[in-house]
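#structure-requests
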Amino acid sequence: MKLNRRALHQRALALAALGLLAGTPALAQEGKPKVALVMKSLANEFFQTMEDGAKAHNKANAAKYTLVANGIKDETDTAGQIKMVEQMMAQNINALVIAPADSKALVPVVKAAIDKGILVVNIDNQLDAGALKEKNITVPFVGPDNRAGAKLVGDFLAKKLKSGDKVGIIEGVSTTFNAQQRTLGFQDAMKAGGMNVVGVQSGQWEIDKGNTVAAGMLREHPDLAALLAGNDSMALGAVAAVKAAGKTGKVQVVGYDNINAIKPMLADGRVLATADQFAAKQAVFGIETALKALAEKKKQADMPAEIKTDVVLVTKGSK
């Protein structure tokens, strides 16, 4: 069947509306871009706060973009997060803002999104530089310096300890860049203070696993002076382990994230310090970076490599 010029033009418009021309997703309804936010575990208060912040921003800017947000069931569900990104891609999104569960494993699906014409922005946990280079892609990281943030917490703890004191580090998921960086920051502070790091074990960012690791360290080292947890969820588990061992007030605990659940513990001393990296703003920073790039019609390779955001020390005296 032959198509006349008008029919061909209408068909081309229809294809463009479906985002099938030029490999670029079409804009959502009324010309608004569609932005997908893919987070780690929504069982973690940090990511619940992140999602709330993103939704509040979208509500205030509803005329500017459409938001689709989701997170995985637990911190180690890497396969689930990859599938989630694939599902988002099928929804004809224009931009993807992602907090990857694994710094390397998410790179191939991120590459697939970029190849489809989707702009990708990385938040919270930085994608592995070597894996990105291998795929010949660049992805801007919008987030804090995790090593510097952890060192702030560690330096504050070191002032409460003495040289030679034994400390243990409860690390997040060990394949994630932010977990590695926080551990390095803790180690920097402990080395500077002359403390003895007797162990680094993964609590996989979760309360129960953090509790198990903390309990094991306390049994193995009865003279342990402090536990440094890579996030506040694991710090909650550590506090419970310290209490069960009858060592509340004797073993210091520090965390990272400043979630609401940790605040009463900062107030009564069960947790000495944490770091605030502003969960509600992190996704917003990523979304605004993506929207700016879309408005300026930038390609992935034209976007900035890194945009630093704030991280601050939080203690009992903090406001």
